[in-house]
Amino acid sequence: MEDVTRSQLDSSPVAPLEERGGYLVTDAQEPDPPTNSPASSDPPISSASLPEVKAWSPHLALKAMLACAAAFVIPGAGHAVLGRWIRAMLLCAAILGMFAAGLFLFGGKLYTFNPEEPLSIFPVIANAGTGGLYMLCAFLKTGFDARPEVPTYEYGNTFLLVAGLLNYLAALDAFDIAIGRKK
Amino acid sequence: MHLLAMTLFALCVSTVFAIVTKEDPREQFRYAVKAFFAFLGIALAIGWLMYPFS
């Protein structure tokens, strides 16, 4: 029977077909055993390449949520909850240092959402990454005044934005450690 | 002040990147040092590249 799936441009010689196990095969290959698995066409994955993740349990989920929540309240606290004290202190020093430098040393400002400028949501999301620090400034009503006359105003803004974004990374790292994906 | 800002930024960001991306403390330290000097070096290189156009 002519193979209708072959392209007309394919001029390579066709190997003779023979029936084996109910399947028409050539000498070059053995028929794959029939499977009912929907993922039978997926490439095999080496189990050694996958990170070890602990089986989900209420305790594990609670620990992960607690670590993330702590990381958003105080930078580095997520790692402290998980017992990684040195990492916690370094993260706290780095993120808190950037926040303080941006606000007090370089004269930057924290953003609030301006409905007339919908894109202002993005710097708000970045600033809000510091979590507890942003809330504290909102409560104290400090840090939201723009001071463009300060020469390092834009540096301060950048420091504040990046501090929040780095805290998102730190919270995700704490989550990975909590679920066992990372040491 | 600009150099201070750049150095402080590089220090903080490279510290956080090293902690988040690496697991072994020795690897973290090496990555932090490499990232720190990369930040400073590339910033200085770009500054000099822009100098003829200033």
Distance between the termini of chain A: 59 Å
Helix fraction of chain B, binned, reads over 70%
Number of strands of chain B: 0
**Shape assignment of chain B:** elongated
Number of helices of chain B: 2
Count of DSSP E strands of chain A?
Answer: 2
Strand content of chain B: under 5%
Counting copies of identical and different chains, the oligomeric state is heterodimer
Q: Please work out how many helical segments of chain A DSSP would assign.
A: 6
Largest sheet of chain A, in brief, is:
2 strands, antiparallel
Largest interface: A-B, 25 and 14 residues
Strand ordering within the main sheet of chain A:
1-2
Radius of gyration of chain B: 13 Å
Descriptive account of the structure:
The complex is a heterodimer of chains A (183) and B (54). Chain A contains 6 helices and 2 strands. A two-stranded antiparallel sheet of chain A has the order 1-2. In chain A, helix 1 runs antiparallel to helix 6 and helix 3 runs antiparallel to helix 6. The longest helix of chain A is centred in the C-terminal third of the chain and has 26 residues. With 54 residues, chain B is mainly α. Chain B has one domain. Helix content of chain B is 85%, strand content 0%. In chain B, helix 1 packs antiparallel against helix 2. Chain B is elongated. Chain B starts with a helix and ends with a helix. Chains A and B meet through helix 3 and helix 6 of A and helix 1 of B.
